[in-house]
Amino acid sequence: MHARRLAVLFLAALVSALAAAQAPAPAAREAPVRTLPVPDSVSPAMQKIIANPLHPRWLSEPKDANEWKALVKQAYDAVMPALPRLREALGVAVKPDTMGGVPVYVITPRSVAERNANRVLLHLHGGARVLHPGEAGTYEAILMAGLAGFHVVSVDYRMPPDHPFPAALDDAVAVYRALVAKYPPRNVAVFGASAGGSLTITTLLRARAEGLPMPGAIAPGTPTVDLTKTSDTLFTNDGVDNTLGTYDRMIRASALLYANGRDLKDPLLSPIYGDVRGFPPAILTSGTRDLYLSNTVRMHRKLRAAGVEAVLQVWEGQSHTQYIGDFNAPEVREYHEEVARFLDRHLGR
Amino acid sequence: MHARRLAVLFLAALVSALAAAQAPAPAAREAPVRTLPVPDSVSPAMQKIIANPLHPRWLSEPKDANEWKALVKQAYDAVMPALPRLREALGVAVKPDTMGGVPVYVITPRSVAERNANRVLLHLHGGARVLHPGEAGTYEAILMAGLAGFHVVSVDYRMPPDHPFPAALDDAVAVYRALVAKYPPRNVAVFGASAGGSLTITTLLRARAEGLPMPGAIAPGTPTVDLTKTSDTLFTNDGVDNTLGTYDRMIRASALLYANGRDLKDPLLSPIYGDVRGFPPAILTSGTRDLYLSNTVRMHRKLRAAGVEAVLQVWEGQSHTQYIGDFNAPEVREYHEEVARFLDRHLGR
Fold first, then answer.
1. Which InterPro entries is this protein grouped with (chains A, B) (predicted)?
2. Which of A121, A274, B125, B332 has most Cβ atoms within 10 angstroms of its Cβ?
3. Conformational region of residue A134, where left means phi above 0, alpha means psi within -120 to 50, and beta covers everything else
4. CB of A251 within 8 Å of any CB in chain B?
């Protein structure tokens, strides 16, 4: 097995060298089959998450609205039972409300430090722009409120199949508008994972276009900043990431469902193609096995090139969104401590 | 092909799910064969580097001192002819000298900004602790002097097979001692790539143990902070990285050659096992295809957990050390601009 892999490597190098001698620029290369042990370089709690099998959901490709709704319900039913225990363990209260005409959940930790009393985080949940409606979208917000100690407002934005683009963005901007009317904008941060990380950035693009002020900081986690199959780790981490598995099935299908015929490179769909000059300080997060590692580092570079203070953290061995995979894992607590420190440094009081 | 890969993914998910139902914790998983196109998300100059075939050098395993020396000579002969043109293009002068009894190269850019006049960078070259003796080690230092505009002193440290551990470290610390006697320590930075990035950190560990002051900042690029096969991307990016290819051949062989019987987890060999509290600000760099991406992010997390100001940059699509792969690539210039800004912020004048 070992010898065979080495033979493949040798042959690949030889073939590439011969190809390079003949053609001006060799193109794609083949990565061999590899065995990926669960790494020793992470905590036991994170090892369990990394050892999990891929959920078959991400290999599905719903063909019509009914199939999408069945998938959404399945995910909803899987998330909901965990929430009461999570709220209790982290001492967090969740209350439905309306803000800017949009349904939201107001999430309040048991105790809020004095310096966070007049600060608020706007949360945009993940789930490929189609999963986690209603209270199911509060999972990440409960973690942030409980582990970082902030007031959080989580937006229950509309989603396809019934409400494709720009419904989600309209809702996010409406709540943002209400928040920056109520709080000094520098006291507001926006955050979210995956689709929510991308929506964090497109919300700022739209807010700016509408003349709204920028918030004090943002924390996009492994954001889907490019809905096309461009980012390199969509290829290199295909079959390596055990959260999403591959771009080629549900991820692509949900991108097309959300875009509803619009060009996937529209900056309000794929903010990597937008203009991020003047953005507030940003903390971005990914993992070495993350299918969206490239999405994350491309956005980090783009922000830096635009002169924005942007910091990057990449977690060892983690696939997509595993930095919020289990609140008992030390990595998950450390993630929230990093974000809390970053926001504390940049938000107004 | 596409259908086959998906079938494999489906089967893998199914098998994992079945295994999970039976066993307490599923272990390793298989990553399928993947075709990796050269990404569209990098510059044309970087695309050329990413499209290069793996150099067969990294698949070799020299069996004795003579075979090692032949390999060292081959690499030396490949690097040397490029240096005169590089020095000229970047307007950099290189002069051999001695410092603390150790041979060094003093590298001076044509013009040095006023604020950098009394600052100096100590450079520790890469090459798996065995390659690039003499002037061949100045490549990275020429880039840094020319593109970031600093005075650089590059250490021609002793290497195996004739001089295994701790010769290189002794030499690096001797030059560091001389530099912090001549300059205010806060005006000194230490940097290097790969083996040189690791040596940057072990030099600080030894310097501290010997009562020397810390420098103003460090810039370890894709540092080999763990000589054992522990880091997750040694597995996930095996056969993906086109600079190093795999840990299993020359990388492991050179680690054992350098360690010379010492435990590979000794912190002076693998500084990820050391105590980095009190370290100066650090900027760390890697790429999404880098075999040492995990080495880099593990070190970043370790520094952050120790309360050190440490920033991370990860470059899209790049394998090991490709951020210094071609001074014409915009990514390579941007890398040096980032490091220059970081050092400017942290070094004394």
1. AB_hydrolase_3 (IPR013094), AB_hydrolase_fold (IPR029058), GDXG_lipolytic_enzyme (IPR050300)
2. A121
3. left
4. no
